[in-house]
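Anyone up for a design puzzle?
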C-alpha cells in the first residue's frame, strides 16, 4: 500500500468520526486542505492513477477526488470537477471485487461517487450495491433513506438543484421550491 494512500485512509476512517464526514466546518476543511491538497493535485494530474490497482490505494484515491474535493473547494465548481473520475473508480472497485477487502464504511465511501452523480444509472448501481453489501449494517435504514432522497431529486430534476447556483445553472421554479424544503441540499 502506498504511504500517502495509507495516510489518507487513516485520516478519513480512523481519525475522523461520522460527524466529521458530514459536517460543514471551515476548520475541518482547512485541515484537509493543508494535509492533502498536494495529493489531490497529483491525483488530478494522473500521478496516482496506478493506485487503482490496489484496493486500499484505490479507496484513498476515491476519498481524495470525491470527499476531500468537497471539503477543500466547498461551494465552488472545483468541488465537483473530479466527480467523473471518482465515479469511474467507484465502478472499478465493484468490478474488481474490492468490497471483499473493505469494511462497511469503506464500501459506503466507495459507492458515494455514484450517489453524487447526476446520472440515474449510477444511482441504480449504488443502490444495488448498498443493498448487497450494507444491508446488515446497523445504519442501513438511515443510509437507505438518505440515498433514496438523493435519488428522488435526480429522478425529478435530472440533476441536483442545490448545485445550480455554484455551477451557473438556471433553476426552474420547481427546483427553487424544492430548495426551500428541509434536507434538500447535501
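Challenge accepted. My sequence:
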Amino acid at each position: 500500500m502506498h504511504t500517502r494512500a495509507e495516510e489518507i485512509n487513516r485520516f478519513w476512517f480512523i481519525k475522523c468520526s461520522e460527524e466529521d464526514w458530514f459536517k460543514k466546518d471551515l476548520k475541518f476543511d482547512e485541515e484537509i486542505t493543508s494535509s492533502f491538497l498536494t495529493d489531490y493535485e497529483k491525483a488530478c494530474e494522473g500521478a496516482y492513477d496506478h493506485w487503482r490497482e490496489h484496493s486500499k490505494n484505490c479507496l484513498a484515491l476515491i476519498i481524495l477526488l470525491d470527499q476531500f474535493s468537497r471539503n477543500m473547494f466547498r461551494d465552488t465548481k472545483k468541488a465537483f470537477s473530479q466527480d467523473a473520475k471518482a465515479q469511474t473508480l467507484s465502478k472499478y472497485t465493484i468490478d474488481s471485487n474490492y468490497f471483499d477487502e473493505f469494511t462497511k464504511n469503506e464500501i459506503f465511501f466507495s459507492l458515494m461517487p455514484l450517489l453524487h452523480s447526476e446520472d440515474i444509472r449510477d444511482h441504480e448501481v449504488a443502490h444495488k450495491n448498498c443493498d448487497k453489501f450494507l444491508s446488515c449494517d446497523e445504519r442501513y435504514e438511515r443510509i437507505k433513506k438518505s440515498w433514496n432522497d438523493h435519488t428522488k431529486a435526480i429522478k425529478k430534476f435530472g440533476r441536483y438543484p442545490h448545485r445550480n447556483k455554484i455551477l451557473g445553472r438556471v433553476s426552474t421554479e420547481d427546483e427553487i421550491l424544492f430548495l426551500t424544503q428541509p434536507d434538500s441540499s447535501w
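A detail worth pointing out: The chain has one domain: 3-178.
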